[in-house]
Design the sequence.
């Protein structure tokens, strides 16, 4: 997926018009439209503003190598986990692993 398609996807999910997004990042609706159609690429500063408004990372918008969304909330949680003492971190990972295993098992038996 391209930068432009990712911008369109998240802008629409947030129910923002091109004009709304343009005003928030300091540009116009026609320029946002050109970004979305991949006709032009924004500057790094503008890409960061767009990512911030859409609640995603710049890397997600431009990388194109993964469809996984690393939104700001998820990144904040990861940072909070990393700041925990090792013993507490292990407990969090244990529960995450347990939830993942449960859902994979549930999915496998549902087939």
Sequence:
């Amino acid at each position: 997926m391209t930068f432009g398609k990712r911008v369109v996807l998240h802008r629409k999910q947030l129910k923002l018009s091109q004009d709304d997004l343009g005003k928030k990042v300091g540009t116009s609706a026609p320029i946002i439209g050109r970004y979305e159609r991949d006709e032009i690429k924004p500057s790094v500063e503008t890409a960061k503003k767009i990512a911030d408004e859409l609640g995603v990372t710049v890397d997600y918008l431009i990388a194109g190598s993964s469809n996984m969304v690393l939104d700001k909330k998820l990144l904040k949680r990861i940072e909070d986990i990393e700041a925990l003492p090792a013993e507490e971190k292990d407990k969090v990972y244990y529960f995450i692993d347990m939830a993942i295993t449960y859902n994979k098992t549930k999915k496998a038996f549902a087939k």
Remarks:
- The mean pLDDT is 90.
- The radius of gyration is 18 Å.
- Residues 3-63 form a domain with the 434 Repressor (Amino-terminal Domain) fold (CATH 1.10.260.40).
- The longest helix spans residues 86-110.
